[in-house]
Amino acid sequence: MRIPLLKRTFAMAVAMVAGTAVFTATPAYASSYKGCVYPRVCFYLTDADWAASSPTAAYQDVTDVFQNLGSKSRGAKHVMNTRNDDRVILRYLRYGETYYECLEPNTGRSYPSYLTVTGIMIQTASSCN
Fold first, then answer.
1. Pair 76, 46: CB distance under 8 Å
2. Can you give the pLDDT at residue 56?
3. Averaged in consecutive runs of 10 residues, what is the pLDDT profile of the chain (129 residues)?
4. In this predicted structure, what is the pLDDT of residue 21?
5. Residue 123, Cβ neighbours under 10 Å: how many?
6. HSE-up of 47 (CA within 13 Å, CB side)?
7. Who contacts 57 (Cβ-Cβ below 8 Å, separation ≥6)?
8. What is the DSSP string of 37-65?
């Protein structure tokens, strides 16, 4: 039985949304969240690192190109942006294909194991729109 293309596309989109969780920190103006000290973007390799509020890596430099993630951030399970006015563009792999995602100020993301975060670019724009 073949599933029509529109239904397959919709099902894939639903699966992608269900696979990532979005969370927002209480406005952290010049403070920290889950051990991520303002104004950093922190990476947590495992759920245990996240639960312990113990980031394994942090980035804070605004760049106009992607920075490749190192061994303590590549493939992180959680990412937190404590910056108040800067968005973060994350590059990740999903089954070998490259995708990009914008992370608003003072928000974070959780990633399923089939997504591998590979790069970060911090930009001075205050929203993803």
1. no
2. 98
3. 42 42 52 91 98 97 96 98 96 96 95 96 94
4. 56
5. 15
6. 4
7. 42, 43, 69, 70, 72, 73, 76
8. ETT-EEEESSHHHHHTT--SEEE--B-SS
